[in-house]
Amino acid sequence: MKIQNGIVVEVRDLVKLYPNVRAVDGVSFEIHEGEIFGMVGPNGAGKTTTIECIEGLRQPDGGSIQVLGLDPQRDGYELRELIGIQFQAAALPLQIKVWEALDLFAAFYSNSVNWKPLLEQMGMAEKGNAYLAKLSGGQKQRIFIALALINNPDLVFLDELTTGLDPQSRRAMWDLVRGISQQGKTVFLTTHFMEEAERLCDRVAIIDHGRIVALDTPQNLIDSLGTENRVVFRVDGHFDEESLRTVPGVIRVERIGERVVVYGQKDGLISGVVNTLEVDGIRFNQLRTEQPTLEDVFLSLTGKEMRN
Amino acid sequence: MYQIRALRKLTIVQTKLYLREPVSVFFTLLFAPLMLIMMGFVFGNSPESMFGGRGQLENNVPAYAAIIIGVVGLITVPIGTAGRREAGLLRRFRATPLRPLTYFTSDVLVYFAMTMLGILLLFLLGKIAYDVQFKGNLLMMIAGICLSAFAFLSMGYVLAGVAPNARVAAVIGNVLFFPMMFLSGTTLPLEVMPEAVRNVSRFIPLTHVVTLLRGLWFGESLSEHLVEIAVLGGVLVVGTIIATRAFRWE
Question: What residue segments make up the domains of chain A, in order of their start?
Answer without folding.
Answer: 7-223, 228-291
